[in-house]
Each structure stands twice: as C-alpha cells, then as structure tokens.
C-alpha cells in the first residue's frame, strides 16, 4: 500500500514543531456542555440521596417485623429485649399463597426466647405455672380469668406451642429424624390445640415455605454477621495486600528486569500449588460419604461449604487452574523475545516513576474517591429499598369477600371488614406504597446505579489523565528532571480539573451508558432463564458478547484519548480520533509492545492476589492449627476470603495502574516522537538511550548542549 494511501486512511502523521516542549500550558476549557450536564446530574444525585435518607429505614432489612409492623429487638423500643419472631400457627405457612405474598397468614409477635417445650393452651390453662409460661407467647391483655374459647376467639394466644429453635431471628419448630420419621418433642404426633392429633411431618411444609420466604434474608443476615465478626481481619488482609503491592512496585523501580522474571516464575509456582492443593483435597475425599454427588444433583445451596465436601468441585477447580497454567506457559514461550522488549519498556517506566515518585501514592487518592462513591451508592440503595411503607392485609381461615384486601390495624376490630368476616385478622403483609414517590422508586434505583457508574468512571478517568499529564512531562523534558514541573502530579491534576472536567465527564458518560446496557441485558437474561425460546436466548447471548467487546473498546479508546488531552488540551472527540489514528499507524508496535507489557503487569496483580488469597484461605478456614483459636468463627468462611481476594485485586490494580498508565503514556509519546523527529541533529529523538537501543533507533549526532 502506498504511504500516501495508508496515511490518508489513518490520518496525517505529526509534523516537526521546534516549539513543542510537552504538555501544552496555554489551553482552554473543553466539552463545557458535558461539564454542565455532569454538575446538574450530581446535584440531582444529591437530591435523590436526601430524599432516600428522609424516607428510608434500614431497620426493615436488619430486624424481623411482627404483625403490627414493629421491629423485634430494636434498641430504644419496648421490644428491645424481644429479638425473635414467633409464629402463632406455623402450619399456615404451608399455604401456596405464602410464596406469592411473601407472608404467612398467621399472627406473628416478638418474643424474648423461643418455646422449648410442647404444650397446648387447654392443658396449660389448667396449671397456673404453665399458663404463666404460656403467656410469654400471647398478646397483651390475656388474664387468668379469661376462658380458653375467649382467648382463641380473640386470637390472643396460639392454640399450641412446639419446641422451637432460633433461625435468622425466627422461631421454627425443632424437628428431628427418628428411624426415618419426623418427630417433634420425641413424638411423631401432637395435639394441635383443638383436640385433633396431627402428624409431626405436617409442620415440615410450613417450615419449608417460611424458610423459602426468608431464604434471601437468611443469607444476607449470615453474611452481615460474618462481616461484623471478621471486619478487622479483612482490613488487616487488605493492608497486607497494600503493603505487598507497594513493596513490589518499589522493587520493580530498582530491579525491573529481575522482578519481572521473578514475577513470572512465582505466578507459575502459585498456580502450580493451587493445582496440587486441589488434587490433595480431591484425593482426600475419595471414599467419603456423599463425596461423589455431582454438582448438578446437588443444585443451588446457600451454604457454599457444602460444595467443598464433594470431589467434583475440587476436580473442576483443578482443571480450571491447569488450563490457566498451560495457557500462561504457552504465551510466555511464544512471546519470549517480545518479553525482552517489554521489560525494557518497564525499565523506562521505572525511571519515569523514579522522577515522579508522588505518582505511586496517587492510587490512594483514587481509592479514597472510589470508596466515597461506593459508600454513597450503597447507603442510598439501602435507604431507597427500605423507603416503602408497611402494608396490612386481611387474612382469614374461611371464605371472605375482603380476603387479601388492604386494612388498617388501628380500627380493624370495629370495621365493616371485621363484621363481615369474624375470624379475619389485619396483619402486616409487606413493605410497599402507592404514592407518586413509591411508583417512581424503581426509576430512582436505576438513576442511583447509573450515577454510580458515571461517578466511578469519572474518578478513574481523572486518575488516568492526571498520571498521563505527569508522565508525558517527563518524556518530553529535554533535560530530565530540570525541564519538568516541580510537582508534575499536582500540576497535571490541576490542569485536568480546571480545563477538562467536561472531557472527563464525556468519556465516562459514554462508558457508563455501555455498562448500564450490559446490566440491563444481565437482568433480562436472569428473568428469561426459565424460557425455552432458543432464538431469544441466542440473540441475548450475542448482545451480551457485543456489548462486552464494546465496553473493552471504549475503555481502550478513552484511556488513549485522555493521554492526548493531557498533552495537547483538545476536546474528547478530537483527542480520541488523534489517538486512534496514531495507534492505527503503528498497529504492529501496539500489538508487540503495549499488550505484552500489559500481560506482564497482569501477572504481577495475579501474583499478589494469589499470595494474599492463599494466606486468607488458610487463616479463615482454620486449616492451620496455629490460627484455630485466633480465627473468628463464621457461618461462611468464604465471605472474608472472597472479600480479601477481590479487595487485594482492586488494591493491586490501583498500584499497577500507575505502571500501566506510565507505559501507555510513554508508548504514545514514543510513537509521536518517531513521527515528529528523525534522529538528526536538528530533530533528535527524545526517547532515552536504552529504549533507542532496544528499538534499533539512534540519534545521528549528539544534541547540542
């Protein structure tokens, strides 16, 4: 292809400019309209947060709610010492309507402890001491002078009590197995309080449906409790990850070549140990009872530790790690020559970071801003989800025209509904509402998610542009560090916020739109999981794949556009076009240098996550005897492990992003240098001598002093 035709398709190369000294200081504000839009959106986001905080009540998630809509065990209330929820008749939870309405049609009240003995109201009424015990599980107003029929007619007490155990702050019958049969109180039958002998297995359906209703809350509460018991150990693990990342970066600064090879070997060894550990667990479960159950037969279980008791889980882990190990080794074999060039680029990045040491601590600022964004989003989401009002409905045992209609508990006893249906009750059903605020609640949640993406992407973009401005000032300095600003990071941060807030908002808005579309596609896919339309499923899968690729491309384009904005101070579209054409004119170099370097830095992140993750696993799982007494006792030990692993990756990514941004910035500056200069005395290359040797480039004569 002729050179003119090639450049015609991919833009014109940069011309030599003797006045160009690096990032342009004389620049103006860019993408002002998007800056205004972003400020308005932030103000609206604050308004949504204030509205949510004024309407929401997180207690609805934390505490169980009785039939009056009161919170059990909430401090500062009359029910402070009654943290458990008791069902008058758990067998009513066996109704299929429970799964539709998410509420058992029986009176529920807060109690101090669950009943620990079996008795009926009829028998308890005959013995004063037993009746005093029984009244703990009755409504207020029950006296010793009241007869059993009057108590039952008024719905003041349950007809019977069964031995129960607390499960997620709710009292469920303590059912046991005996010779293959279900028993309660060591008996396979019980008197239901009306003189009818019922089988203990009749309680199973009630418990099962009540458990289904509360299953999501059970998991959330257990995870929440695990966090409360292990948060300080999680924090310590994240601090260790931060110190390890910082140490790795510092060593990379002075021993780049050695550290890269150490990193490669360590990653292979860590993954190899993972394969060995999975094999040992797989072999240890051989012959164990129930270990040969397949994952398909086991189905979904809220207790993740169940999966670790079957051999197929460890076999799957072993295969996955083996594939990853083989892929990494093959990549290293085929790219062994390219790795040497990438190491040279990392060495140069290390020198740049040595001149801009404050850049190593910039990820802490980004992490702080991201933590604020995440905290604001999470708190707003919780308050929005709990800003509904309590809804009460009519529940009855016999046919009633008012069944499941809304009611007011305060005046229900004197209402026409009660007169028409004598056995009906007005009970708390769920949280909802029919006001304009409640109708648009889903829209506010969507806005909360969208602004979370936009703000998080804005913070990330600000970090990229700031670091790009600092490192480009290093590259284009003729005499380093004399020609560099005194505080390159602060100077670049000031330029980015003063002139290019709109550009940052524009790029992050495009990325956020793509991400929110991906979230909607995942939501639709979740809703259509039961559908058998293969065409729809295939189309949805294609859309998800396309938008995943689009997100990766937008991130790549934004990153390079921010580098060009940091250097030349132009708007987003112009900078994105210039960066894209510059990369297209040097496509081979992009594939050889930039991507191989990214792969090496990814191995570094993988190494840190692997090391911290292995230590977290042995600590929280109690596999090491030295930590058995120190480690907290948890429902799910995978909760802190997963948190530490994800947090370690984010921390390592934050520190390595400095290197990645430095490499990308130097790479674009290097490509610009090749187009602007030719190595002659009048137009010498500004790239360091080590990089010139690696790329077989040299200045014809030394530049004039």
Automatic annotation (TrEMBL):
Molecular function terms from GO: antiporter activity
Keywords: Antiport, Cell membrane, Glycoprotein, Membrane, Mitochondrion, Mitochondrion outer membrane, Phosphoprotein, Transmembrane, Transmembrane helix, Transport
Main location per the UniProt record: membrane
Catalytic activity reported: choline(out) + n H(+)(in) = choline(in) + n H(+)(out); ethanolamine(out) + n H(+)(in) = ethanolamine(in) + n H(+)(out)
Keyword Thylakoid: no
Compartments, record wording: Cell membrane; Mitochondrion outer membrane
A GO term from the CC aspect: plasma membrane
Membrane topology (UniProt): Multi-pass membrane protein
Transmembrane segments: 30-53, 231-252, 258-276, 314-335, 360-384, 449-477, 497-521, 599-622, 634-652
Purpose of the protein: Choline transporter.
Family named by the database record: Belongs to the CTL (choline transporter-like) family.
Protein name: Choline transporter-like protein
